[in-house]
Predict the 3D structure of the following.
Amino acid sequence: EAGVKAYNQCLHDHGFKYTWGAWNHETGSDVYTYSYVTGPNAWADFDTMHASGKDCDAAWRKQAAPHLKHESSAFMELDEDMSNLPASWRTDPPPAMIQVIDFTLKPGHEPNETFRANMKKFAAAAAKSKWPYHFQTLSIEGGGDGAPDYIIVIPTKNWADAGSEPNPTFWKMVEGVYGKADTDALRKSFNEVVAKSSGHYDSYNADLTYTAPK
């Protein structure tokens, strides 16, 4: 963590213009895991980001890299039509915690299309019923072997919020829009295309976040 702070200070000193939010993994297979997320950005922004961050590459290699077991990266593309977002989602501050659910689909084009079609129906149901619980669905690009195909991110305020049941529950909300028979069919087809799924909770770490100067 001291190495990350030193790296962030280097970025600040060089006027690096992209914010990176830091997240501590509170549950999962390795709780000594950190995730760093930037965006939303255009693809071309990463060309500029790569060039402007070069001055601090040496600081990262010296201060932080020696303490790493491994690291990986991926692009996440937000699917707005598969999400239930608040109107202010682009400007809202990060939530205190998030639940992250990974989905790896069965191979082939059809499972992917079924997953996307179902998620769009779920998001449409949430919007139509004005369900007051939000979620983001993101597709993973370039994650490498073992990376999920999609993740769903659910913001939470604290552990009490994370452990409370939505009212109505997600499936009751869907049933209220589409009826029981269609909801049962949607649930079945959704489950059939998922090869595996797992999840973890993360907390926002303001001390390790890099906030770009304005």
Q: What stands out?
A: Residues 109-128 form the longest helix (20 residues). The CA atoms of residues 11 and 54 lie 10 Å apart. The radius of gyration is 19 Å. The beta strands are 21-25, 34-37, 75-78, 97-105, 136-141, 150-156, 194-204.
